[in-house]
Amino acid sequence: MLGLRGQSNVAEPISSIPDDVLGYADNMRQHYRDQPIVPTDWPPKIGKDSYFGRLVLVEKKASCSTPAESDWYYTRGQVDKIVQLSGNKVINAEEVLKPTDSSLSLRVVIDGPPGIGKTTLCRKLLNMWSNGKLQQYDLVLYCPLRNSKIATATTLADLFVRQLNRYKNVPEWFEERDGKGLLIIFDGWDELSEQLRQSSLAASIIRKDKLDQCSVIVTSRSYASSSLLKMDTLSRHVQVIGFSKEEISTVIIQTLQKDARLAQELINENTNARNEYKLHFTTMHNSKDSQLAVKLINGLKVRGDVRSLCYIPLVCSMVILVYCKKGGHLPTKLTELYEIFILQTIRRHVEIKPKHDIDPFTLGSLSSLPLQLARPLQEMCQLAYTNLANRAMVFSLHEIQPLSQAVKEDFLGLMATFREYDEVKYQFLHLSIQEFLAAWWIAKHEKTEEVFKDHFDDDHFRMCLSLNTLNLPLDTAESAIELFTILQTNTTLETLNVEIKEERVYTSSMGTSLQYMLTQNQTLKYFEINNDIPSSFLSFLTTGLRHNTSIKHLNVYIPLNTGVTYFIEAISKKDNLKEINLNFILELDQSHSCSEEQRMTPLFYEHLLPAITSMLQSHTTIIELRIGCTHINGDWSEPHWIEPVKKLYDTIFIHPSLEYIEFNNNRTARFTHRSLEDTLRDQEMTLIERCRNEQPGKPLPIVDLNIIKLN
Questions:
Q1: What superfamily would CATH give domain 14-242?
Q2: Alpha helices in 282-423 (DSSP H)
Q3: What is the rounded distance in angstroms from the CA atom of residue 305 to the CA atom of residue 307?
Q4: 216: buried, middle or exposed (CB in 10 Å: 19+, 13-18, 0-12)?
Q5: Residues of the chain above pLDDT 70, percent
Q6: Phi, psi of 490 (to 5 degrees)
Q7: CATH topology assigned to domain 333-441
Q8: For the range 172-179, what are the long-range contacts, defined as Cβ-Cβ under 8 Å and sequence gap of 24 or more?
Q9: Mean pLDDT of 363-383
Q10: pLDDT at 684
């Protein structure tokens, strides 16, 4: 039974709908019913029905002002706080298309970061309609905008992907009704060129210039949805925000512990009386799967950088897979996560379809693949890069046939196939996979600075360039000056991560250009210099950061000397800095006859620790602080060093926002300040008790000070 028809509050007699419309609708229902909600088993499915996590309805009047704040929480993985923003509330999939008071013809924008599950949500809605729900719609059309025929469509008939001759009059029937009873799902607004976002049929329908009686869902990555959110025709803005902290733990348990009974027992074992998860997971189970799940959950609490990505179902799946394959070790950064995942995909391909005398477990890295696998990977990286530049994400057979080695190797398992207009098409497992492979190609074969400049404003190169610029080499002062000059006025790039290996690059002109860039650019959020900065250059960085208001994550290597307090004092006044990673080095000085440890250790206790304590007392919004410092001798103790350590501890536990602090010596040895260790242990217990009493709603900060105490 089709039940209520059209978009009227009054049931429309089934006899008023032409047989060919009913027939085409039944045909599409069967087509959608036959499609799985999650179309591929790789990356592995996770959890139990964990398709896309939570949906948040954003109040329409707040849509134009909320994205910037939401984006900040997205980038840090603090998606739970998006729910708490004014006007936001969690909804379920059934509420996405709930009619508004003013209109039954809806324009719904669904956005979120890559891999969050926007397309999966679309498939869920298609499945719901095909199984008898959402019956206010006579027909639902799924229109992926990465399909060039849909992106460049000029008539409604062009959007009917399944064009069956016996139903050729169906589009005309809906056109005569101005789209009444029709739901169109445009998936992937961000995959349209800027021109098509202005002048395509899809844009006209979304703006209600055409088919104003139909309902429309349009999905987009968050960075491309701003134009949609400004439309007067917008009915509803829904954000896919993924898993909560507790859901991440649940998903890990349900994925690693295949026995449903044991999984539920592990969940119950770690749930307190308030029905919340305990701070530290434990298990009495002998099951290795349960023990591995507990180890991963506890490991993520220390590795907040990785945990902050796990709210995305795609990444969460990859993290669990990589963790298991690496023997219980987490990746150090996003690039490593993607690299290991792709390597594991190739291993899986070799194991499933053995065409060579290759042991998959001997494949150690993408850079050391045997020739018969390296060649197809190179072809696929080049395909990813050239087509990303041309905004092509779907490929026909004739487009991929020239990739002879990749075709021979079934694309190493990195591509999926689907049918479109009865033609087989190919696409990468996920757009982010294509972006990573494109970044790999750039790093190996292109002039990075030129690609960086050419594609600065290309939405689809954002992740690609971000991945690549984690290691963007600046070999000359001129190239650095050119880059920083471009960035002074750039308004799209959010992450800049550079390598400056030669000290000759650090000229005063280059320092001035960096200082101006940091002063002028107000969209950069992540800034890292992955090499030692000389003391002569520190003033430029200090002045630039003093005037910058956008950077939230800072990672630099700076010299530890008596003048470092000026730098720390400057960043202590920057409320925009939420995550700070300072790595202190000792500059070479031939005039000193004492050892590096003899020079570094007093500087650490007598200058650095008081400066860090003072910074925490001034900086009341910092969330994460990591301090790296080499050549600290833990066996060398002076009585007057105990007091600055105690003051640091006291400041940590009364800090209003600090969630994680780490002092890392970058060495495997632990230290044995026995008297200091005993003092800190007693003080820590007192401070924890005081923190719980005075700030009962605030979670205790995670503290790892392995330089100055024995764990």
A1: P-loop containing nucleotide triphosphate hydrolases (3.40.50.300)
A2: 288-302, 304-307, 313-325, 334-352, 371-389, 397-400, 404-408
A3: 6
A4: buried
A5: 81
A6: -70, 140
A7: Arc Repressor Mutant, subunit A (1.10.10)
A8: 173/18, 173/20, 173/21, 174/139, 174/211, 174/214, 175/211, 177/6, 177/213, 178/211, 178/212, 178/213, 178/214, 179/105, 179/205, 179/210, 179/211, 179/212, 179/213, 179/214
A9: 91
A10: 72
Backbone angles phi, psi at 292, to 5 degrees: -65, -40
Helix and strand numbers (H, E) in the chain are: 29, 18
Q: Tens digit of pLDDT for each residue in 422-457?
A: 678 888 888 788 888 988 887 776 555 565 556 555
Which of 562, 504, 514 has its CA nearest to residue 534?
A: 504
Give 695's contacts (C-beta < 8 A, 6+ positions apart).
Answer: 656
Q: Which two tokens stand for residue 153?
A: 């469509």
User: Quick check: 115 and 315 in contact, CB under 8 A?
Assistant: yes
Q: What is the average pLDDT score of the chain? A: 81
**Predicted local distance difference test score (pLDDT) of residue 174:** 95
Confidence class for position 131, pLDDT limits 50, 70, 90: very high
pTM of the model: 0.62
Instruction: Give the pair of three-digit tokens for residue 94.
Output: 């059934």
Q: Which residues of 63-94 are buried (b: 16+ CB within 10 A; e: fewer)?
A: beebbeebbebbbbbbbbebeebeebeeeebe
Q: How far apart are the C-alpha atoms of 342 and 87, rounded to whole Å?
A: 40
Q: What is the DSSP string of 260-309?
A: HHHHHHHHHHTB-TTS-B-SS-------HHHHHHHHHHHHHHH-HHHHTT
Residues whose CB is less than 8 angstroms from the CB of residue 145 and which lie 6 or more positions away in sequence, other chains included:
151, 186, 187, 188, 189, 191, 192, 202
> For the residues 250-277, what does the mean pLDDT come to?
92
CA–CA separation, 156 and 202 (whole Å): 10
How many Å apart are CA 474 and CA 222, to the nearest integer?
A: 30
Which of the residue ranges 101-110, 214-223, 534-543, 565-574 would you say has the lowest mean pLDDT? 101-110
Per domain, the residue ranges of the chain are: 14-242, 245-320, 333-441, 552-711
